[in-house]
Amino acid sequence: MYPGDYRYSKDHEWVKIDGAIGTIGITDYAQHELGDVVFVELPKVGARMKRGETFGSVESVKAVSDIFAPVSGEVTEINAALGDAPEKINQDPHGAAWLVRLKLADPQEASSLMDAQAYESYIAGKAQEQSA
Amino acid sequence: MSPKLTETEAPPAALRKAGLQVSQDEALIFERSASGKRGMELPPLDVPAVNAAGVLGDNFVRDGINGFPEVSEIEVIRHFTRLSRWNYAIDLGMYPLGSCTMKYNPRVNEYVARLEGLASAHPMQPAAVAQGCLRILYDLEKALLAITGMDAATLQPAAGAQGELTGLLMIRAYLASHGNPRQKVLIPDSAHGTNPASVVISGYQVQNIKSDSRGQIDTDHLREFVTEDVAALMVTNPSTLGVFERRIAEIADILHERGAFLYMDGANMNALAGIARPGDFGVDVMHLNLHKTFSTPHGGGGPGAGPVLCKKVLEPFLPVPIVIRKEGRFALDSNRPQSVGRVRAYCGNFGVLLRALAYTLAYGPGIRQATQDAVLNAIYIRKHLEEYFDLPYDLPSLHEVVFSDARQKRNGVNTMDIAKRLIDYGFHPYTTAFPLIVPGAMMIEPTESESKQECDSFIDAMRSIAQEAETNPEIVKTAPHHTRVGRLDEVAAARKPVLRWKP
Amino acid sequence: MRYLPKSPSERQEMLDAIGVRSIEELFETVPAKFRLREPLPLPRALSEPEIIEYFKARAMENAPGYTCFLGAGVYDHYRSVVTDAMVQRGEFLTSYTPYQAEISQGTLTAIFEFQTLMCQLTGQEVANASMYDGSTALTEAVLMAERLSGRHKVLIARSVHPEYRQVLGTYGRNLGLEIEEFGYTGSGQADANALGKEKLAQAAAVVVQSPNFFGVLENISELADLAHQGGALLVDTIAEAVSLGIVKPPSDADIVAMEGQSFGIAPSYGGPFVGVIASREKYVRQMPGRLAGQTTDANGHRGFVLTLATREQHIRREKATSNICTNEALFALVATVHLCLLGKEGLREMAEQNVAKAQFALSELEKIPGVRRAFTGPVFNEFVLEFPRSVKLINAQLMREKIIGPLAIGTHYPELTKRGLVCVTETMPRTEIDRLAAAVRRLLEVPL
Q1: pLDDT (tens digit, 9 = 90+) per residue, A69-102?
Q2: H or E stretch including B267?
Q3: Looking at the predicted complex, does its ipTM rise above 0.90?
Q4: Strands across the sheet with B152-154, in order?
Q5: The domain that contains C424 carries what CATH number?
Q6: Which of B292, B476, C194, C331 lies most in the core, judged by the most C-beta atoms within 10 Å?
Q7: Which domains, ranges and CATH numbers included, belong to chain B?
Q8: What is the Cα–Cα distance from B230 to B171, expressed in whole angstroms?
């Protein structure tokens, strides 16, 4: 379920590295917690993102979730399709509903993020916490 | 309006109090409109008519108002009468809404608000011919000061949130006049959303502080948080769990030691009026919600009024104008050099203030009994529902009680579902999902306006739903079943907002 | 007590069920030193007839039998009794905020109609479900412009209502808003030439009022062009909403902040009234206040819900567009019913009657030696007159004839002494206009 070649943050963002370019989105866990997505707020092309800082938000009817940058860089592309169809985030969070593409400030940064296996254990742990 | 529920759909044999909405469909007024109809006629002009374009200039005159309604008087009456029948209301039954204090709106208040000399008063008419209005303001202030144990008041703020802002501005002005306005205001994580929002608008930063394991302010650790940077702590007392902050005097002392202020959100005053006065337990400045404790009608969302009461030390900073009395005459005084300024035009929601005064005149010192009845109702309901619903914080509560949906959640039934099913039993839901420190919160406040029968009805309904959550969770999860419209698609409404009618 | 539905025996039953002996025990959680031992020192409880007597006495202490020529943001217009018949229905009066849509369709449908009417009147694309009043609507509109533009300078015309400007100042001072006032010309209109390129390039908003405090109509399209050239938004505030029955709607303004008191709401010594913010659809997520949106249920029935709630305090908390929670819903309903009654033709006729009455009053008063209009710009139902002596003195004498005369505007505009603001709506009988003119003429004939 969680693509093996992505890296994952504790705040439930994923990043896919292609050389010097990073593609960022939110995970299936995050979209499930949020419920039906109604709106996405994204930065402008050219904006600089710093790892750990918020760069936008995802809204459901009753909640807003800030999205935190898993890596640093400069925004080169944003996913305009989400403006008209925010539900893509619920339907295909790891693929068609990518949020931004970045020119990475430091391609090594991603290595300190979790891999798919570590992330899956992490969210399994969270699920246990909640039902306790 | 008695319902005819079929056997298969009816709620269980326990007391039924359903109010079925009339299922008649009613179009929007624009959809009933047709050219040439009018609902109101004016007396003819007794001065010469003029050509507007000639007087104002062509470029200032509009063509017409496209799509504006054209209907007759009877169509207006029928339209709004039909719409009204789709609403629940206090006049129909209980609203167990925690934190809202939905009590009876006395009708004499409506009558006196409409008296000719009061309804027609212009806010700028000279004080000599406004003595009646000014005395109403003065008498209300006196009553509110007596009830809260504070020293001075402003009746200007239009609602609780604006009262919060006003109190924070006053604190800021005081601290600034002493050289340093400071930067932060402490907000418990159980606070109402207006609290942090008001802090930001007053120019301060919010610092959230976690409640302790019993849902109270963590007084043991409070000293660490009250640095020289902190201007105030905003407390709600009783808390949003309905529990009195037992260490409130200590909390006030800690703040005062560091030159900070204690602000009290007075939303829960219905547990204290006539029993205890915030001025006595260390509060420096607070607001009241007249549309809560003081019975002014909610009217579908407002108006309200949020008077601010303060201790002497903050009096110079009150908004202008203030009401003064000199040699038996009343006047408005704007000559207050340290005032924070005006927070709205004119002197406040006078019509609301007037209704609140009528309420206090009706009770006098007997307001204590209203408070006692409110607390009696809440504890009675708590006692009867404790076995059925999870009580996350078990300290003794006053006028409201907060359960959680933890037990029902095991069958996939959450607080929103239970709330919607309550509608089928003829009640408005309780407050769902607040305060934030209780996941799946169910906040119940029955007010003194509820009879024993109404409370018993409510208890029976809640018990019945708890049972349904065990034996037939689907019926709860898909509620309500007996309303004109079912659960509405809020997702579509937010994704593609349609916020007006178009021809 | 008539508002408390419990008999003494029922109270006892409930205490027994809880397991306590007295009600006092229920308050033990309040520390003893704070529990009041005596009843509050309030006057004794009054019966309903006594309450009515108290307020009737207060009403008589106001201005019974006086004729009032005041406007200045609060206007006396005809109000139908049908409005009260609707608004006094318990289902509207005593209902709560419509968070539970299934049992609040009455309120939500009416809000949707209100929002629509406000758009139709102002020529804007979306309108909210109400703010507290015109002054706070203006303030929130300016904050909205600040968020949208990312700029912090505000250029506001002095011809905007003084109390509205004061409120903006109270809020703006603590939020880093740089508020700069600019003047007016001999026409009584905002001085567009005072808006230099440099200032506009830094401004979040240019703020005007139309009709302005002097009663004069502003050139909204021109001002909008000017503002837009500098990258600023134009905020137009409207205190006399009936003007929209005849005056061109401010569709070129980016945000309209209106006071709806003129739509069937009594002057009531200053409140409650109803503010509204109307703007472009693309700005809706930065708009404060509640919004009712159309949707359907699972069976396809049309219904209405509060929507875009993530802008608001109960969800967004410190990041909300505003701290507003309780608004003026009942008075938005008053305005809605009133406008439905008046309708397209009725509102236009009312507006035209205002223009006619004001023109008549103006011409009669200008016939008085020494009295002339202060500004040349077009007026709706208010105008400023210049008098040969202090307006306060004139008013003191008019009061003896039970006339509340022009508002002396010298206190708010030190450069405009001996000027008074006169308001004449459709409700002012010609005989009273004649009486005012005769009284002013008479007292001016007597040397000081």
Answers
A1: 999 999 999 999 999 999 999 999 999 999 999 9
A2: none
A3: yes
A4: B152-154, B308-310, B285-287, B261-265, B230-236, B184-188, B205-209
A5: 3.90.1150.10
A6: C331
A7: 29-84 (no CATH), 111-364 (3.40.640.10), 367-490 (3.90.1150.10)
A8: 11
- Length, in residues, of chain C: 448
Residue C94 pLDDT exceeds 60: yes
What is the distance between the alpha carbons of residues C241 and C261, in angstroms, rounded to a whole number?
8
The domain that contains C94 carries what CATH number?
3.40.640.10
CA dihedral B137, B141, B147, B152 (to 10 degrees): 170
CB contact under 8 A, C167 and B298: no
> What is the rounded average pLDDT of the residues C333-344?
98
Residue B25: other Cβ atoms inside 10 A? 9
Residue C314 in contact with partner chain A when CB distance is under 8 A: no
In chain A, the number of structural domains is 1
CA-wise closest residue to B283 among B304, B313, B305: B313
- Find residues 476-495 of chain B whose CB sits inside 8 Å of chain A: 490-491, 494-495
Residue C96 located in a structural domain: yes
- If asked whether residues C86 and C124 sit together in one domain, one would say yes
**For B409, which residue in chain A has the nearest alpha carbon?**
A131
Q: Which 3-state string (H, E, C) describes B223-240?
A: HHHCCCCEEEEEEECCCC
Judgement on whether residues C251 and C121 belong to the same structural domain of the protein: yes
Rg value, chain B, Cα? 26
Domain match, C205 and C329 both = yes
Chains that touch C (3 or more CB pairs under 8 A): A, B
Q: What is the distance, to the nearest Å, from the Cα of residue C274 to the centroid of all Cα atoms in its chain? A: 5
Is C279 in the same domain as C348? no
Mean pLDDT of C289-298: 95
Ranges A59-68, C72-81, C334-343: which has the least confidence:
A59-68
CB B496 within 8 A of CB A38: no
- Does residue B2 surpass a pLDDT of 80? no
What is the span of the domain harbouring residue A51?
7-131
